[in-house]
Structure formats: C-alpha cells, structure tokens
Design goal:
single chain, mainly alpha
Length: about 240
C-alpha cells in the first residue's frame, strides 16, 4: 500500500521547522515570562498564535484538489484556533472569547471529519466520549463560576464529539490507503482532549506544576497531527 504523505512533509519541511521553533518559544515564554519581563512575554505573544498560523500555511500547501473538501474546514479550524490562542494569552479575562473560538475550531474539525466518513458510525465510541466529557465537567463543577457552567458543558460535548468522530473515521478507513492520514487526525483528537482537560483543571481546580508545558505541548502536537492529516495519500494498492 503506497502512502504519499511524505510528499506533504517534504514540501513543508521549512514550515514545520518554523512551527516547532515557534511552539518551543511559546512554551518557554509562558513558563518564564513575568509581569516585568518584556522579552519573554513579548516572545510568547508573538510565537503562540504564529505557531498555529504556520500550520495553517502547511495545510494550504498540503491540500491537493482531491482532499480540499477535508483540508478546507481544517484550515478554517486552525484560523479560529489562532484567534483563540490570542484571546487566551491577552491580559485580562478573555477566557470565554477563547472558548468560543476553540468551540468553532472543533465544529470545523467535525465538519471536516464527516466529509469522507459517516458521522457517528460507531455509536459506542460517541457514548464513551460523552461519558468522559461529563466526567471532566463533573470534576470541575464546584470550581466553575456559575456563568461558565453551560458554556463548558457545550464545549466539552463538542470536544468529545470531535475526538470520537476522528477515531470513528479511522476505524471506517481500516485497511484503506487513507488510513495513514486518518490516524493523524485520530491522534490529534485525543491529544486535543488531553490538552483542554489539563487547561480547564489548571485554570479552575488545581495548581499543576509547569502547566503551560503540558497544555501547550499536547495542544501543538494535536494541531500538528491535524495539519498532517491533510496530506495526500495514494489510492493505488
């Protein structure tokens, strides 16, 4: 089974290298910046959304005509994610605005993941991820401000549906040439759930040591896998 995804990574080698550099600086900036440290704070502000936008560039370069129906909504999702990155790092409380942006990201990814696969083809997966989403919210419930409870429930369900659909799509593509790229999306969906769960618990419930490392590390890995999932694959066996 010939897989041509390496064509995408060869084409975007420089873009991915710049992405890794920006992601690393964004994480370092978040860990090291202080209110009086303009250098690290400025680097964080510059590199955090730039890393996501570089993945958007990679997706636009990745997508041949045969995969644009999938790649286009992934690109839209990355654009909303870059806006969410910006809201979440700004001084002041823009958490709800960031949450809405990332909710739109997950909606765009769900749309992408249903362009070439049936929605909820494996109901058991969706049931499992719905229970996980409710468990995450239940663990946060008493720590959440009352006005944030409904938005967090909606967000958690959308996040769980996105991850479930990504894994369901992978199972539907079992034994097919597209399985390799579907695996990237499935990994991205799972990592996004981990990242957002850590973000929520670190913000509302616990003090997690080096929280930015775990949250941003899993987040950028998730987005990288979604970008890679737009690469071309060979239909020839």
């Amino acid at each position: 089974m010939a897989y041509q995804g390496t064509l995408g990574i060869e084409r975007n080698r420089l873009v991915y290298a710049l992405f890794l550099a920006c992601a690393g600086l964004a994480i370092l900036g978040s860990l090291l910046a202080t209110p009086d440290d303009a250098l690290w704070r400025g680097l964080h502000y510059l590199t955090k959304p730039t890393a996501t936008l570089l993945l958007l560039v990679a997706v636009l370069r990745n997508s041949p005509a045969s995969s644009r129906t999938y790649a286009a909504p992934v690109a839209v999702g990355l654009l909303f994610a870059a806006a969410g990155d910006t809201f979440l790092m700004l001084p002041g409380d823009y958490f709800l605005a960031g949450l809405i942006c990332f909710l739109l990201t997950h909606c765009a990814y769900i749309f992408a993941l249903t362009r070439d696969a049936k929605l909820a083809a494996h109901p058991g997966l969706f049931g499992t991820f719905s229970l996980v989403a409710f468990a995450v919210v239940a663990g946060l419930w008493t720590s959440l401000p009352p006005e944030m409870r409904i938005p967090v429930i909606i967000y958690a369900l959308a996040l769980g549906a996105m991850a479930a659909q990504a894994i369901s799509r992978l199972r539907q593509f079992s034994g097919m040439p597209a399985q390799a790229t579907a695996r990237f999306a499935a990994c991205g969906g799972l990592l996004f759930m981990i990242s957002d769960t850590l973000l929520a618990y670190g913000r509302f419930r616990w003090q997690i040591p080096y929280n930015a490392l775990w949250v941003l590390g899993t987040y950028y890995a998730a987005q990288y896998f979604f970008a890679r999932s737009t690469e071309a694959y060979d239909n020839k066996r």
